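Extended Data, panel c. Modelled sequence:
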Amino acid sequence: MPGEILWAPWRMTYISSAKEEPQVCIFCDRPSQADARENLVLHADAWVCVMLNRYPYNSGHLMVAPRKHAADFAALDGDEYRNLMESFRRTVAVVREVFRPDGLNVGANLGKVAGAGFDAHLHWHVVPRWNGDTNFMPVIADVKVMPQHLLETYDRLAPHFH
């Protein structure tokens, strides 16, 4: 594919800031901001927040986090843990309903060495997957093709979290 241009403008922000340590925890800061859509926050209550990943692995990549700033499940009390798991369960159901994926990747990366971008704040990832969503682009061009803009994805999901 020499000479062809692949356009993924959201990646430059990530690439240019990837070496910096985050100054503010997104899971603590974003849910308290006034503009939920701009901050990609789909749901926030006293226990949990659900937001889109600004640098998704796939369209519809959501994160579910406790409001308590904690790095591990053991730091959550019973109510915090139950509310986190219930929100996680509901988020998976919403993703299945809205996107009708063929499968899902779900998981929590505990610690930097395990891949956590924000290792000080526990969070689950929910990533919808479809047959054929993996192709040659990441291998050949180091680019992931996202079929839907983040704010369009937000607008599609938001009614299911209100």
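The CA atoms of residues 54 and 89 lie 21 Å apart. This feature is highlighted in the accompanying rendering.
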